[in-house]
Amino acid sequence: MTAEGKRACVIGAGFGGLALAIRLQAAGVATTLVEARDKPGGRAYHWQKDGFTFDAGPTVITDPACLRELWALTGHDMARDVELLPVSPFYRLNWPDGTTFDYSNDETHLRREIARLDPADLAGYEAFLDYSAAVYEEGYVKLGSVPFLDFAAMVKAAPPLVRHRAWRSVYDTVASYVGNDKLRQALSFHTLLVGGNPMTTSSIYALIHKLEKDGGVWWARGGTNRLVAGMLRHFERLGGEVRLHDPVVRIDTLGARATGVTTQSGWSGTFAAIASNADIMHSYRDLLGASARGKTMARRLAKKRFSPSLFVVHFGIEGSWPGIPHHMILFGPRYQGLLADIFDYGVLPADFSIYLHHPTVTDPSMAPAGKSTFYALIPVAHMGKLAIDWEQVGPLLESRILAEVERRLIPDLHDRIVTKFHYAPRDFALDLNAHLGSAFSLEPLLTQSAWFRAHNRDDVLHNVYLVGAGTHPGAGIPGVVASAKATAGLMLKDLAR
Ligand SMILES: Cc1cc2nc3c(=O)[nH]c(=O)nc-3n(C[C@H](O)[C@H](O)[C@H](O)COP(=O)(O)OP(=O)(O)OC[C@H]3O[C@@H](n4cnc5c(N)ncnc54)[C@H](O)[C@@H]3O)c2cc1C
């Protein structure tokens, strides 16, 4: 038997849902993709305002090979739908004392940058690179798209974890190789891009350094939204069916199987297999809430640690800024202390570190001629830790963040603003059904990774599957696209029975 001709439903058109839907449809499974919002993308939603294009979420595209594979499955070329442009430097890091550090995969340039911070750290950097390459091979290449369904799979993965001392944090590992405080920040901040605290996230995540070094950092012309649109177009080209703007309200079950889904509009369908790309807590507590399994899992998930949320200020301004690179981190005066405030204490600190996104420097089509698009993002504690009224605090925080960008980069920023708005934790909760307004789902701790993370196939409901940031391997585009590969493998095998 093959899976061909069977019917499957994917709930949610985030990167994970889209990648899974493409894989299923490419294998001949008649797939329906059901999305709650008016546009696909999930965290990668977008808005058009006053001629500016604002991407809501991901801006750093890494490992383009994992995306190209989705087209190559059926002999298509991704370049037909999406144009990827290289970004260099990958990031410019900037500290309050005026020090800058350009981070890229140009080894000669990178070594010069490291030597500028501290020449004594060059040898340590080389050794760190070797470490990063080794954990990349084990954690991403070998295990990234393997579903951890039973503890035996975890036991098999244990020797490399022990060999690489995966219980140590990324920061502690980096600090064991290099001594310069700024370089330690430069080589460890990446876990924040997947919702992890560099001080506690497993050193396995040091693999991101190698992932970026080998695969580069890319930008999709027209914005990340164009990549999303390209994936949707490709799915429809293969014959997939899409329902937008119609939230699923229930996954129906009978015994140990799911039978179908029902949406808010009253539409319903019966399927041989159902996968949810929606928030993991929402999937179990709300969509499967009528089943005993849904209730049990919701109780278990409530005890887990969820990643922080984000506060993002989008602004379109007059003028072009060729001197401001595409990706900048404006570090604040504190690193460890600030991270503890966000991840542990759940307070809104007086200081912050900002990630500044400036797409128009790579791609002027993101704004009207002579104008520029930006977003400034800070991590903030999720709503379970930080109970404040975002309606009230949002405008004040927006002003403080813009004032900091004005002070450090664009002196007359306020006079130049054409349009601006912000996106706060409660927007993640309301728009995306994100538990506690978390931006990245479950925190990527060792104790919440691989087998300890939500499984790609439910343990009890045999034809219910999960895909996306809450499952193995975790958040970030390469992560959720890898989770789709793991989940598709299981579904195709099960459907072929
Ligand atoms: C601001 C920001 C910046 C980021 N930057 C980067 C970056 O630069 N690079 C990177 O690699 N990663 C980045 N990330 C992380 C990355 O965007 C996410 O980890 C990834 O996109 C999550 O994909 P997902 O498959 O889990 O689905 P999600 O994006 O979470 O999508 C889930 C979808 O399910 C839908 N849904 C929810 N409930 C229902 C329902 N009941 N019925 C139907 N549909 C439903 C939602 O509307 C949504 O469309 C960033 C994230 C954020 C928030």
Describe the structure.
- This protein is an alpha/beta fold and about 500 residues long.
- About 35% of the residues lie in helices and about 20% in strands.
- It is built from 16 helices and 19 strands.
- The protein has helices at about 15-25, 65-70, 105-115, 120-140, 150-165, 170-175, 180-185, 205-215, 225-235, 280-285, 290-300, 335-345, 390-410, 415, 425-430, 475-495, and strands at about 5-10, 30-35, 45-50, 50-55, 85, 90-95, 100-105, 220, 240-245, 250-255, 255-265, 270, 275, 310-320, 325-330, 355, 370-380, 415-425, 465.
- A seven-stranded mixed β-sheet has the order 7-6-15-16-17-14-18. A five-stranded parallel β-sheet has the order 9-2-1-13-19, with helices on one face. Strands 10-11-12 form a three-stranded antiparallel β-sheet, with no helix packed on it.
- A hairpin with a 4-residue loop joins strand 11 (about 255-265) and strand 12 (about 270).
- Helix 1 runs parallel beside helix 16 (about 475-495) and helix 4 crosses helix 8.
- The protein is globular, with a radius of gyration of 22 Å.
- The termini are close together.
- About 55% of the residues are buried.
- Flavin-adenine dinucleotide binds near residues 35, 278, 433, 440 and 477.
